[in-house]
Amino acid sequence: MTKPWRAAPRAALSSPLTLIVAAVTSLLACFLGTAAVLQASAAGGAAVRYQTGITCPDSYGPMFGKGNMPVRDIPAVTGAIRRHAAAHGFGAPVVGQFTNVLRGTEFNGDPHYKIRLGYRDQAGLDNLTLQQGTRAPGLWLGNVVADAEHIGVGTKPSLQGVPLPPVTGIYRDLLDPPPRWWCSQQSGAVIDRLVDDPIDSIVFATDGKTFDDTIKAIGLPTMQYFHVSFYEPAPATLSAAEDLLQRSKDLVADVRADLTAQGLGSLIAADVPDFGRSVQISRQAQDNVFVSILPLALISVLVGCAGLGTVALQWYQRRHAQLRLLSARGSGPAALGGLAVAELGLPILLGGAVGALAARLLLGVYGPPGAPDPSAELRAAGVAAGTLAVSVVLLALVVAVRVHREFELGRVRRGGNRVRVLAYFPWELATAGMAWLGWTRLAHYGTTSRLGNPLPQVDPLALTYPVFVVLTVGLLTARLAWLALHASHRARFWSRPALQLAIRRLAGARAPVTGVLVIGTLAIGTLATGIGIANGQEEALDTKSAIFVGSNARLDTDSPIGMGQVAMPAALAGTSTVVGELTGTGSVVLVVDPATFTRGAAVDRVPGDDLAGLLERISRPDPRGTPVIRVGHTAKQNTKLPDDLPDAVVAGDLPVFPMIGTSPGYVVSRTVLSHAQLDGISKWSVLTTAPMAEATTALRAAGVFIPNRISRESALDGLPFFVVSWTFSFVALLGAVLGVVAVLALLVAVEVRRRQNALAGALVLRMGMRPRTLLASHLMELGALSGLAIVVGVVCGVSVAGLSVPRFDPATFLAPRSELPDPLPFVLTVVAIGAAVVALAGWIAVRSVRTARTAELIRA
């Protein structure tokens, strides 16, 4: 005879629903536990990626530099760096050298040129654009001077009578801002001709020997700019960044010790100036996300384990007769607990493994845009393994304890009174108290970002506030639904039999109905809250930067382009506008061009649908004064305008406006100002939707002076916004998982009642009810349950997100405040999915009636 333990895996197939529930419960528990670890690590990787994107590519590793470096000491310094670099995993160093201004350089017989001679190892020439000539040993001259002064390839310059190498190439000058490869060398390699730079051209030597021979020939004692760095691959993970930082510090220490031994210890400055701070910020970002999601992750895993405990109780009830027989034959509680493991252990292990694997494979879908550390992947696997171990032990323990109590102690554990007490306990008051506590903590969130800390301090209670609010509303809704179903026997709708039957079916399954209602409400509310807050912070970053800059890019200029003396370049004509700015009366006054403002400025961020009408209104002269759009009106704001302009006559109000924000200000049309009034405006800016590099190139080609410029990418530090978004993306993930649980619970509840539905459906069909009416009855039942969960969840989630988004704003000092994005797409998606689930569940319920056999109906 085959022992039950050996036949357990095959015996489990007799109840596929139990197998599915056990596997899915294990899958979701392991998925959430694994996802929490990976989410936090990916946040660190995403922070590293963000920080590397805003720093120079050679500043990830150590940097050595000095101004006015003695030429005679350069070989000792570079030699020490090269000797120690390989030992710490670095490649060949890139040495950059730039002389001071060499006056009296002669080209084509003219001795009045001022140049700077420079050279950079390795890919220096590769990152210059050669327009004429070759890489033959010699000098490369910038194209601006070469074209203007007709200096061609082959020219032999000299410096105060000392011959210099011939010009072998003409390259395109590096303009401000330079290509990213040159950003650390901007002081030496870039000429800003529009700020009266005294240098005519940066002249690059094609190779190190040519450069060294030239410096020796002219007898230059010092090098004005001396810089040594490494172009290492950008680290993709936080652990890689920390390793790179540590190796950089070790290399700096060894080079210092080497130079000190040579008596040159104070010769050069060495540090990791930018990336050390970047790594620190990335570590803080990872820790913030981890601390924020840890409570929710722990709760989720514990709920999953509790679900497996419920599966164990269901298995015990289903196998009760077999367990009694085996116990009577001498099997102990441990052996019978092992039987449960033998029967359900494989589905639990497979489900957990699939959940952990799915969490890793789908990280790019639900997580931050960064790579997790390998150590984090190991920790995530450990969490999954630990969750599986706890689940299996819990399965065996629950069964063993029940067997011991019932079969060995001879008493059955009666839990009816305890369950009744738990049902009547006001859990919603406890969750409401937690929500209130989180709300009080939320008021202080983000205040440290105003004090120079790039990331706001994290308060886990503040971050759990939205979830506790949704949970409170879900529990309250479930309690009211329970009471309503308890009193539903008084309902009399026999004139509508489909509705009456739906009510009775709901009342007959109050416990599953309220359970599905709580899970569904919590799922939809949590999903709405997570998506709303996460997307709200990203949109807040876009809106704040757009309003602050005024458009995609803002380039400050002078009066020639503002007065129209220099035409807008053709490349920018369709995407740009010119704005003047006046101050002096307490209110900022912008002078705009109504004809071009809407196509160049960030008008899509301005609330209101009649901006074009307001601009047209202020373009018409008013005998009473200057027609204006009033922005951010306060009681202290007066109508006096600067530069003796007539007092303001308000044509309309707006709460926010590009460049002004929500500060008190006025918008004036240039069409109502005279030429003399326009000439008095000293500050003009070009607002453009074009990329910054494209706009800078076009304006420089037109000879426009650009003292300052700013783009949306560089206007704000986006990391504080991203950290909030990454945190609540996990909340959204939790809501999505709960949504899957709610859908499965609804379908399982329908399947569990298959026999009852089949018998009741067969009876009402025999009594004359049409199949269409029966289907309508099931749709009413399931639609009422799903509809209530959707309505309560959406209203609660959207409301909580709307209240929370402004409070999670990490830059409240910058207008406008964060706002909830349009929830309509989310609502429509949830309604569509809910309708599909209800239709599927109704079809399953009716199908059970049509496919039921006579013997099954008799047994039911």
UniProtKB/TrEMBL annotation:
Its main location: membrane. The chain crosses the membrane at residues 289-313, 334-358, 378-401, 421-442, 462-485, 506-528, 719-750, 779-804, 824-846. Residues 1-42 form the signal peptide. It is a multi-pass membrane protein. Keywords: Cell membrane, Membrane, Signal, Transmembrane, Transmembrane helix. The keyword Transmembrane applies. This is Permease. It comes from Amycolatopsis bullii.
